[in-house]
Write a structure and sequence with these properties.
The chain is an alpha/beta fold. It contains 14 helices and 9 strands.
Length: 389
């Protein structure tokens, strides 16, 4: 029969603390409350010093991470274009499997549903919804120039909105957003087919909660987004007016984050333009000196697994090579500072030059804020998607 609680306690104490329950309960008799004997001692000063030591440790890791990345990338053979293409594939697999997280659920039929929403002099606009896999769909706006001849195949520009954005911000002729300046509409007027997808970084902390649920599965938002865009590429390539070998990606802000990750994973994108986001991304994530670091903002979902030791933005661009890659940077864009952007881009330019394809990468600075500039980037699209002005 199990003894009552007080009886069990007596058994333990009487057994010298090593009784049937193996619990040491013998303690010294109560005494006076301890008092602090040091005069003028401020515990907050010590706590602050300990915190600063921890912070400095993280900053040292951040500064040293560049050399760790160099060692990680040492197996990428830059002796020739062909050898680089072969040896970079394991890095793409690592990026997908270990950093982004991969869902290999089979893609279902498109089951495309569309309805016309715009009728402009030079193009027609449609809302489109595609099935991806169970409980996941892809939605966006398609703009189709009216002068496409029967049998003609045009290049496509996928125009990606930023945080809390909508396809309408990019491709609705009735909306002139201060950051996007209707760049999807402008490109459709230039003769490109345009598709503006809805990415799921909307509804504030609701999407961040999704990120938190995905992380224990070794996955992230881009695990889902990459499958949506795989289906989008498949569907665009099936359209009779689209050349599947000439589909470019152009994104601003969080769309610029997409421009670094999606073309790195999905080789169906023929080029990529990162606007308003390219940066010394690792430093942007964890610096405690820069007031626009993610250490001090509300985007708590932004951090990804072990980027410091594997993939900064330059290394993501290494996965886009040899396809054309461009950065659009406003001098007054508060997401970063020009020296950080230039330093990180210099590494990208180096590898394109080293492998003989320096004419496939550019950076354009302009005297403006966090917005689409639409000057050098349009020239870049015309050139590399082989579409006359």
């Amino acid at each position: 029969m199990v003894p009552a609680y007080k009886d069990r306690l007596k058994l333990v104490v009487s057994d010298g603390g090593n009784g049937p329950f193996g619990v040491l309960v013998s303690t010294a008799p109560p005494g006076a409350t301890p008092t602090h004997l040091r005069k003028n001692f401020d515990s907050q000063v010590r706590l602050k010093r300990q915190l600063e030591e921890l912070l400095e440790h993280t900053q040292v890791l951040m500064r040293e991470a560049e050399y760790v990345r160099d060692a990680f990338w040492s197996k990428a053979d830059r002796s020739s274009h062909e050898k680089y293409a072969q040896t970079v594939e394991p890095y793409r697999e690592y990026f997908y499997n270990e950093v982004i997280g991969r869902f290999d659920l089979p893609l279902g039929p498109f089951n495309a549903r569309s309805r016309q929403v715009y009728d402009m002099p030079k193009y027609t606009g449609y809302e489109v919804q595609l099935d991806v896999f169970d409980d996941v769909f892809a939605y966006g706006i398609l703009l189709v120039p009216k002068d496409i001849e029967p049998g003609e195949r045009r290049p496509v520009v996928v125009c990606q909105h930023g945080l809390e954005g909508r396809p309408q911000d990019v491709a609705d002729p009735n909306i002139n957003h201060r950051a996007y300046h209707q760049y999807g509409c402008q490109l459709a007027e230039r003769g490109f087919v345009v598709y503006a997808p809805q990415n799921p970084y909307i509804f504030e902390d609701r999407f961040r909660t999704l990120q938190r649920k995905l992380n224990p599965l070794r996955a992230s938002l881009f695990s889902i987004i990459s499958r949506q865009h795989r289906q989008i590429l498949n569907w665009l390539g099936s359209l009779p007016s689209v050349d599947p070998s000439r589909i470019g990606f152009y994104g601003l802000s969080y769309g610029g984050k997409s421009a670094m990750r999606l073309p790195a994973l999905l080789e169906g994108y023929a080029l990529s333009i990162c606007s308003g986001d390219f940066n010394d991304w690792v430093r942007k994530n964890v610096s405690t000196d820069f007031n626009a670091s993610y250490m001090f903002t509300g985007e708590w979902e932004i951090f990804e697994w072990d980027l410091g030791h594997t993939f900064n933005y330059a290394e993501m661009a290494y996965l886009i090579f040899p396809r054309p890659f461009m950065v659009e940077r406003g001098h007054h864009d508060g997401v970063g500072i020009d020296p950080w952007v230039a330093y990180e881009y210099a590494k990208v330019r180096h590898i394109y030059d080293e492998l003989g394809l320096g004419d496939r990468t550019e950076i354009e600075y302009f005297n403006g804020p966090h917005e689409i500039n639409g000057q050098g980037t349009y020239e870049f699209l015309h050139k590399h998607l082989a579409w006359p002005k």
